[in-house]
User: Fold this.
Amino acid sequence: MQCINTTANNVIITPGGQAGLFATHVALANQGDIGLIIDPFYATYPTTLRSAGLNPRMVKTIPENNFIPSAKELNKNAKNAKTLLINSPNNPTGTVYDENNLFEISRVAIENDLWVISDEVYDTQIWVGKHISIRSVDNMENRTAVIGSMSKSHAMTGSRLGWVVAPEQVIEKLSDLACNTNYGVPGFIKDAGLYALTQMPNIEKIVAEPFFRRRGIAEKIIKESPAIRMQPSLGGMYLMLDIRATELNGIEFSKALLEATNIAVMPGESFGESSAGHIRVAMTISDDKFEYATRSICSFASKFTTSTD
Assistant:
């Protein structure tokens, strides 16, 4: 890992991380190019790539490996691809890539001449280990674009304030694109972002703490449930729960849960084939409601498991 010299010429402000994802794919690829996405993925990724003119190709993972892409799968899919989109901490799985994971991804990117687009919007929400940007890996500075956002770190989701950090020639392309699309971010939103950055030094910790606390609540409850297993949650504001013991897929479970309890979760199938048989739970409600909902989910799931007595 290395410290990367970054100047204003390496940064462009965007109307949220989503706009940065779209613009970066436009800048780094041509119409019809192949773009790789790690499965499971944030739900907008495939349509973002298609909107930018790319053909998405999924890199499958398995829950038994905490949804971390293997070198074998990466290499198998990298042929003729132009970009690789990664997300750590990951939505929906809570996976955080460590040094070894990032070295492996970097090796594949270099060997196959891929641009890596790294979605790091949850970088302030790390529960285990630390956040490492793939841009800091040796020889990756000039083939990486990092997407950031104040939506998660500073609770500014509706404000749409994000950025891209990339080589200067990429930022120049993104500047040209911005001039012909959104023409930048409104001044009052940038003023709010500047205020959050300069007047509220502890805001990132304040925003992140409730999610860490609720993660602990869920761990204690789910540990006692024979019907549900929680994937290791290393970062982010979501939990990925394995409900395969119920013999229902994620869609079936989510629909039945909603009808029976009025509790809404996202089926794992919403995020790709690799997370089938799972559900994603958002830790975005108050502690008491979250505890009640988690206990209710476990109780509901237990009705579908076969007793061994």
